[in-house]
Amino acid sequence: MIARKKPTDVLDNYRLTLGRDEYVPIMVGGMGVNISTAELALETCRLGGIGHISDAMNPFVSDKKFATKYTKAKSTKHRESRDTFDKTNVKFDLDDLHRAQLGIVQSAMEQKKGDGAIFINVMEKLNMASPGDTLRMRLIAALEGGIDGVTLSAGLHNSSLKLIADQPRFHDVKIGIIVSSVRALKIFLRSGSRVDRLPDYVVVEGPLAGGHLGFGADWREYNLKDIVVEVIAFLKKEQLDIPVIPAGGIFTGTDATEYMQLGAAGVQLATRFTVTEECGLPDKAKQTFFASEEKDVFVSTLSPTGYPLRLLRQSPCIDSNVKPQCEPLGYILDKNGNCQYIDAYEATPVDAKGRKLPVKDKICLCYHFSKYNAYTCGHYVYRLKDTSHRLADGRYQILTAEHVFNDYLYSAEHKIAAPEPAGELAPEERPSKTA
Asked: What are phi and psi of 162, to 5 degrees?
């Protein structure tokens, strides 16, 4: 008797269903500041998946993309507080914030092609000196701009749905929440029930994700698969038909397929898209990502948000002493004008010549994110070199989003397909790569 080979299970065998819409089961995460660009989201959408834009620091992003003047106007308005540590009155103009968010969303939606969708990632912990007002304005503008979906991140969002319950598209736009535990999901579900609005999907983000983490110092004790299984079991017990989308550490198409076999509806990916042409990171950062080693990746307490932050040790932001940039930026200020970086900067002494010494405890997140000086990354960033080619000049070949997207869809047995070489290869390069 001849045994028949079992057909290979690949990600393309599955589809992500959200309501009445069906997508390729790939969601590209919303990385800020303007790392998940509109171009990356549009390409993901064209290929049939779901692409995210991020709303992190969007007035600043608008100025860079569309030559608006929101940052300058805010800086000028609050110039009197530049030389003090009292930022109580440093506030955003809500009309400018609305216009910035609306312009970015509308621009992306007007260019949309393909069978996919464009979502926006909206962070609760972007306090902006007036947490409720600024969050509502960002959400309202995104819905008015025609966004297909809103992914709520960086916080429990206990009151976020209430802020937009009167918006006409509240029950039509797709809304999801990023959680790292069943406990966090329960809190959001209770808040949703108060306004008769359950999430359309749940992104379960594990401890190997990039940037800010939804875990404490014990993040190593958690495993994404365990959390995903627990969330799926909880929703089934509660008889809630809400799609679950794992995120964080899903590096190969086989990794993704294994989650689909567990009952996931799709996967959210980010790290491998950071080194694509469409990604907003500057080339220096992309090459640093490629060249990194596992020892370079660490989870720090440098973020003034209070969340653990995963980044590379090569990040230029580390041991910086930049003056707090609250007047032009100030996205991390709480409602009382406080920020942990201001406290750390104020407490740092000066040298014999009166120059501020490096600030060791925190970084000015707004400034360094605006300059791409914080190399935030997923845990497996050091494996990116195995997805591309090292060229004769020592640089790594930048990929296309389409290549990465399709490799996830069609690869099996944890194999990774490198692209066709775009130049002369380094001597040590081999023609094929495996994970």
From this structure: -60, -30
Query: What are the two backbone dihedrals, phi and then psi, of residue 40, each rounded to the nearest 5 degrees?
Result: -70, -40
Structure tokens at 322: 């930049």
Q: Which H or E run contains 201? A: strand 201-205
User: Are 215 and 246 contacting, i.e. CB atoms less than 8 angstroms apart?
Assistant: no
DSSP string covering 237-266, please?
Answer: HTT----EEEESS--SHHHHHHHHHHT-S-
CB count, 10 Å around CB of 277? 14
For residue 417 the two structure tokens come to: 């397909």
Residue type, 298: F
Longest CA pairwise span in the chain (Å):
86
194, amino acid identity: R
Dihedral of CA atoms 16, 22, 23, 26 in degrees, nearest 10, equals -10
Please list, in sequence order, all residues whose beta carbon lies within 8 angstroms of the beta carbon of residue 221, skipping any fewer than 6 positions away: none
Q: DSSP assignment, residue 338?
A: -
Contact assessment for residue 214 and residue 187, using Cβ atoms and an 8 Å cutoff: no
Strands 21-23 and 16-18, sheet pairing: antiparallel
Contact 66, 157 (CB under 8 A): no
Give the DSSP per-residue string, 174-241: EEEEEESSHHHHHHHHHHHHHTT---SEEEEE-TT-SEE-SS-TTGGG--HHHHHHHHHHHHHHTT--
The C-alpha atoms of residue 252 and residue 267 are separated, in whole angstroms, by: 11
Task: Please calculate the CA angle 165-40-372 and round it to the nearest 5 degrees.
Answer: 95
Predicted TM-score of the model (pTM): 0.95
Identify which of 239, 320, 311, 247 has the alpha carbon closest to the alpha carbon of residue 281.
311
What is the C-alpha separation between 433 and 176, in angstroms, rounded?
36
Ordered per-residue pLDDT tens for the chain, 435 residues: 344 444 689 999 999 999 999 999 999 999 999 999 999 999 999 999 999 999 999 999 999 999 999 999 999 999 999 999 999 999 999 999 999 999 999 999 999 999 999 999 999 999 999 999 999 999 999 999 999 999 999 999 999 999 999 999 999 999 999 999 999 999 999 999 999 999 999 999 999 999 999 999 999 999 999 999 999 999 999 999 999 999 999 999 999 999 999 999 999 999 999 999 999 999 999 999 999 999 999 999 999 998 999 999 999 999 999 999 999 999 999 999 999 999 999 999 999 999 999 999 999 999 999 999 999 999 999 999 999 999 999 999 999 999 999 999 999 999 999 999 988 988 877 555 444
Query: What is the CATH code for 11-282+392-410?
Result: 3.20.20.70
User: CB neighbours of 104 closer than 8 A, spacing ≥ 6?
Assistant: 38, 53, 55, 58, 61, 62, 65, 145
Three-state SS at 118: strand
